[in-house]
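haha ok so turns out i had the wrong file open the whole time. this is the CORRECT one, sorry everyone. sequence first:
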Amino acid sequence: TLDPALEPILLKQVYTANGRTLINLGGPDNAIDYDPAFRFYITTKIANPKYLPDVCIKVTIVNFTVTMQGLEEQMLGDVVAIEKAELEETKNKIIQSVANDKKKLKQYEDGILEDLE
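then structure:
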């Protein structure tokens, strides 16, 4: 997971005030100037990181480890996105739904464990 403090940067929540482009970091009183050319890169040493769909929606993930199976999956995903856009959209909705359900399950499990203590 990513730190919630990065949310304004990841979602590019910028606004203009007095002719300046600003972004709030850490609260409404912590506005700083925002440069549209700003780029934010995050790297990991994890060989095959798994990210929740809500993270994938906010960022562009570039995986520099290449395998034949991975390339085939990417190509198939691209073809499906072009040929059957509604199928790709349905798949993305299902993935998001599963992720939300997993979050809810974790919350329920934590609540039950807390009640048992």
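The chain is about 50% helix and 10% strand.
again sry for the mixup
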